[in-house]
């Protein structure tokens, strides 16, 4: 997966940027996505994600991460949630954009009692799954998405204790 990374805050460390990119590459490989697919990641402040949340979701508060999926199917044929050999023929498919609030990630890592790295890795994996069409609107969908998310993060070695 090709990832366009942008830190609007100037506050993300090299190691945290590397972790986010590594988790996304790992998840992409784990899910067998084509190497030439793309997404973008932008790191923002709580003030900026609040603006985005209000403008695009009608929710007047900051949040930790927002995912902007570009589509649910590629040419109406290939389901990116369940990739297969056909995915290799899709050139430079852009799944969408991930926006992470470094402020909210920092707050939540303290609230949950784990590292900022664990929180950033979780948010990156969670939002990638959203780009791929997973959601947690129903109990059944939540079980599927959160189960896969946990499976990927555990395989990567980023457990809740980290």
Automatic annotation (TrEMBL):
Its EC number(s): 3.1.-.-
Predominant subcellular localization, coarse grouping: cytoplasm
Keywords, sorted A to Z: Cytoplasm, Endonuclease, Hydrolase, Metal-binding, Nuclease, Ribosome biogenesis, rRNA processing, Zinc
Cofactor note: Binds 1 zinc ion.
Cellular localization per UniProt: Cytoplasm
Top EC class of this enzyme: hydrolase
Binding site for Zn(2+): 126, 130, 136
Keyword Metal-binding applies: yes
Gene3D superfamilies: Metalloproteases ('zincins'), catalytic domain
One annotated Gene Ontology cellular component of this protein: cytoplasm
Cofactor dependency: Zn(2+)
Claim: rRNA-binding is one of the keywords in the record: no
Biological process (GO), any one: rRNA processing
InterPro entries: MetalPrtase_cat_dom_sf_prd (IPR023091), YbeY (IPR002036), YbeY_CS (IPR020549)
Recorded GO MF terms: metalloendopeptidase activity; RNA endonuclease activity; zinc ion binding
Domain of life: Bacteria
Protein family (similarity comment): Belongs to the endoribonuclease YbeY family.
Reported function: Single strand-specific metallo-endoribonuclease involved in late-stage 70S ribosome quality control and in maturation of the 3' terminus of the 16S rRNA.
Name assigned to this protein: Endoribonuclease YbeY
Protein source organism: Bavariicoccus seileri
Name of the coding gene: ybeY
């Amino acid at each position: 997966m090709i990832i366009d990374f942008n830190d609007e805050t100037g506050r993300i460390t090299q190691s945290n940027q590397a972790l986010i990119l590594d988790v996304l590459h790992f998840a992409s490989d784990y899910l067998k996505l084509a190497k030439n697919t793309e997404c973008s990641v932008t790191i923002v402040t709580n003030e900026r994600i609040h603006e985005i949340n209000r403008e695009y979701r009608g929710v007047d508060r900051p949040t930790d991460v927002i995912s902007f999926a570009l589509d649910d199917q590629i040419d109406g044929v290939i389901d990116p949630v369940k990739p297969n050999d056909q995915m290799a023929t899709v050139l430079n498919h852009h799944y969408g954009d991930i926006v992470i609030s470094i402020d909210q990630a920092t707050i939540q890592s303290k609230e949950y009692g784990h590292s900022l790295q664990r929180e950033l890795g979780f948010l990156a994996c969670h939002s990638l799954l959203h780009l791929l069409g997973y959601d947690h609107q129903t109990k059944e969908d939540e079980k599927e998405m959160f189960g896969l998310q946990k499976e990927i993060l555990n395989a990567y070695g980023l457990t809740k204790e980290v």
